[in-house]
Amino acid sequence: MLARLKPHPESPRSPVERVEVAVGRCGGVLSLEFTAHGQVEALRLPPPGAGRADELWRHTCFEAFVRAEGRGGQEGYVELNLSPSTRWAAYGFTGYRSGMTDVVIPSPDLRFDVAGDCCRMTAKTDLRGLVAEQGAWVLGLSAVLEDLNGGKSHWALEHPVATPDFHHPTAFALILPAQEIAP
Q1: Predicted confidence (pLDDT) at residue 82 exceeds the cutoff of 80
Q2: Model confidence at 73, in pLDDT bands (50, 70, 90)?
Q3: Does the pLDDT value for residue 182 go beyond 60?
Q4: Using CA atoms, how far apart are residues 98 and 143, in angstroms rounded to an integer?
Q5: CB 3.0–4.6 Å: which of 104, 113, 142, 144 could bond 63 by disulfide?
Q6: How big is the CA angle at 28 (ends 27 and 31), to the nearest 5 degrees?
Q7: What domains lie within the chain, and their CATH numbers?
Q8: Helix (H, G, I), strand (E, B), or coil: what is residue 170?
Q9: Which residues does residue 94 pair with via DSSP β-bridges, in sequence order?
Q10: CA 2: distance to chain centroid?
Q11: Are strands 109-115 and 101-102 parallel, antiparallel or unpaired?
């Protein structure tokens, strides 16, 4: 399944023209491929690293928010932060921006590359035990893209409020069927 992110109306002009995300799942494993198109050489990319790290969203970072379908926007969800450095983080929430805890998952399989006018972040993440494997998932997909001058543009499927808020229930705008095959 392919989705396109939109920049928040209040974001500064970005060197990136568009962001697309290929999404799939096989049981409890989520596959994501974020592709940013444009003047990607003008993005500030974090230095290479590995393992879990907090506050990745403060710089260029790709994100996914996942909950089981049939749960209201105030129900629990998982947040994934994926950095071009190949650092990552995973958090659980009991409701809208509440009850945040670190969640234990196997290290995601992450890859980042730049080629021509695009950069690509791919991730396979095992969410078994955190999100019900039966039934559809509802996702919020987003990106924070920092330019070389420190300006940050915020991209998401939906921007329901005046300031960027990737956790907002309305930002969970993509339904991913249980039978969706990973890209």
Answers
A1: yes
A2: very low
A3: no
A4: 21
A5: 142
A6: 90
A7: 2-176 (2.60.40.1190)
A8: helix
A9: none
A10: 14
A11: unpaired
